[in-house]
Amino acid sequence: MPPIPYTAALYLAVIQFLFASTWTIYVIYLPQLLMQAGIDSQWLRWILLCDQLTFIFMDIGLGFAADKVQRAVGKLGGVILKFSLVSCVAFLAIPQGLSATGLLVLLFIWVISSSALRVPLLVLLGKYTAKPQLPMAIALQSVGLAVAGSIAPYLGMYLTTIDPRIPFFISSITLLLAISGLVYVEKWLQRQATTATSTPSPVLPVPPVMLFIIAYLCAGIGFQVHSAFNGTPQLLQFVSKAELPYLLPIFWIGFNLLIFPMGLLIKRLGVFPVLIGVSVLAAGCAFFATIATTLTQLLIAQFFMGGFWGSMFIAGITAALNLGKTGKEGMILGLWSSMLAMAAFLRIGLSLSGWQETTEIQTLLPLLPVVFWASVAGLLIIMLRIYRQPAR
């Protein structure tokens, strides 16, 4: 196993963990910060909605920018580091008892600058990792996100009684220290990169690429509906609210454990066959969760649902990087990531509308992940027929 891309992936996993944890801390303390700044709590979800809207545009913009920087300068780490410095300083200042205007300005600066830790980091890894190594490198890098998701319920339990300045300070400084080595990691990756990374950019057929992007909007909607509307009510059928923090991480545990065998399977079978298969399996698990009659059955369904969602996640990144090789990795990956942000945007918008509380929508919600994840498989099958290329 070549050590360099995998070591770099583990380093990026640490950064992803710290970045995702800052987002969890932000969401936990945002109601309190708004109250201190004199902003009515009714604006909470509107601010979160604007955050996702910003991510949609920033993911696309920074994806294109990452490609341009790579072509013009050949180095992306320094740019990411500068954005991250601004992000960490802004995050450190957020809980300092600011006025309403000051708080909103800082939140906007933080969301924009922290976007550099989304798509550009993946572009950096994908740009210098050989295709056979890419699935496992992406799986290793995604561990940070899964671990952050696993501990989020516990952070929600234990941080509410702590002064927000303490976790904001610790998370800002640790993230800044972690990201400071990015330039050296990029040089490390560049030294081991093969000459294949400098071949001319392929001409990408637009229709199949757009089908791939739309498929991931469907995938993201399925995930958002499960995590925001279905997962907790399903567990509450069998356990008390006090037990939830100990059971909710089962989804992310499945994510963490299944992405590694799926990474090996992608290397062996190709990304799109695996992606189609895990989409169908995720839909099946979502359906099984709706008919589970015991807690054990539900936990098994949610464990494998998390695992197959994780497989869809790493396969999506791998596919986006492969479709963009070489020279358009940022463009495709930015569009892919923006669809996941769009799904979160739609979920928050649905919450603001109150539709999820109507009888008709509540009846449909448990089946929406089934429908949307199954549609991913259908769209990808159509894509492969249009593309007329080996699905590897």
Automatic annotation (TrEMBL):
The chain crosses the membrane at residues 9-31, 43-64, 76-94, 100-125, 137-160, 166-185, 206-226, 246-265, 272-292, 298-321, 333-355, 367-387. It comes from the Bacteria. Keywords: Membrane, Transmembrane, Transmembrane helix. One of its GO terms (molecular function) is transmembrane transporter activity. Gene3D superfamilies: MFS general substrate transporter like domains (1.20.1250.20). InterPro entries: MFS (IPR011701), MFS_trans_sf (IPR036259). The keyword Transmembrane helix applies. This is MFS transporter. It comes from Beggiatoa leptomitoformis. The lineage of its organism: Bacteria, Pseudomonadati, Pseudomonadota, Gammaproteobacteria, Thiotrichales.
